[in-house]
Amino acid sequence: MHKIWMVVDPRRSLFLAMVGVIAVSGLLHIVVLASPRYCDHWGWCATPATFTPGQPVGALR
């Protein structure tokens, strides 16, 4: 195992792994918050004429 770490820099590989995990988690949060189930909380998806805060978007399946 030590031979692998002599070829691969542990600091760089752990940093890249951390950046990857943060990027994937950020993308997943954006996708979930943009879904119809959650977008009505902040009014991202609703049109201004029909949107009232706290109103459900539609029936959940």
Automatic annotation (TrEMBL):
Superkingdom in the source lineage: Bacteria
Residue ranges of every copy of the Antenna complex alpha/beta subunit domain listed in the record: 1-35
Alphabetized UniProt keyword annotations: Membrane, Transmembrane, Transmembrane helix
Pfam family for this entry, one: LHC
Bilayer-crossing regions: 12-34
Keyword S-adenosyl-L-methionine (UniProt): no
Protein name: Light-harvesting protein
Organism of this sequence: Falsiroseomonas oleicola
